Amino acid sequence: MSFWQSFIGGVLPYIAIAALILGLGYKVVYWLKAPVNLHWELFPYPRTLGGQISELLMEVFTLRSLFHHNRKLWFPSLVMHWGIYAVVFWLFCLLVGLPFAVYLGVVGGILAVSGSCLLFLLRAIVPELRQISTPVEYLNLLFIFFLAFTALMSGALSDFTFRSYFIGLLTFKPHLPLPENYLVFLLLLWLFMIYIPFTRMAHFAVKYFTYHKVKWGEME
């Protein structure tokens, strides 16, 4: 077995998972301890945990704030996010052994590729969007695009037997070697997981705290 097979398939996954958990954990603790300098005092606000979760889910799955504040970015961003959600759900379904996972993975990959590509082009071409776009935002979109693209092109998202590899990771006995065309996709996946905590893409881990402490803080 080659070095790259062993490293990408059997070592880097655990480094990536540890970096993701520790990095996101640090973000959460930071937001919990951070002082709130300003309450928005928006009314009406959800007073119950159920209401808060409902509002958060509405924001997560519809990107309602982006729709109201920057509608040009809303649709491609929604497509990209739905693609990411679908790929995450693909992994869950794959692990529990649901055969339709392969269709979910392919659809998610296509949505992620389409949304990230369109977002990149809009930010690069539309003058008012280009003015508010930073280099790291282009980098993030390229990272997502190539990750989804390689996942689709390798065939990993449509391979139900790929399940045995992920099950092996969970039991600390990864099934190697893998098909060579999977290695680029997996390398990008693990690097992406390591990268997330250092970027704005970690917002999904702290969204509840920003809402609770800033938008709903007057309840405390």
Secondary-structure blueprint:
Blueprint: H1 3-33, H2 49-62, H3 64-69, H4 71-96, H5 101-125, H6 127-131, H7 135-154, H8 163-170, H9 183-195, H10 203-215
Helix pairs in contact: 1-9, 1-10, 4-5, 5-7, 7-9
Could you walk me through the main structural features you see in this protein, from its secondary elements to its overall organization?
The protein is mainly α and 220 residues long. It is built from 10 helices and no strands. Helix 1 packs parallel to helix 10 (203-215). The longest helix is centred in the first third of the chain and has 31 residues, at 3-33. The mean pLDDT is 87.
TL;DR?
Helix content is 73%, strand content 0%. With 220 residues, the protein is mostly helical.
Key terms for this structure?
220 residues; mainly alpha; globular
End-to-end C-alpha gap = 58 Å
Order of helices and strands: HHHHHHHHHH
* Uncertain residue segments: none
Helix content: over 70%
What is the molecular shape? globular
| Biggest sheet layout | none
Q: Specify the structural class.
A: mainly alpha
Q: Oligomeric status of the shown chains? A: single chain
Q: Quick check: average pLDDT?
A: 87
Tell how many strands the DSSP assignment holds: 0
| Total of DSSP H or I helical runs spanning 4+ residues | 10
Kindly provide the radius of gyration, computed on alpha-carbon positions and rounded to a whole number of angstroms.
Answer: 19 Å
Strand content: under 5%
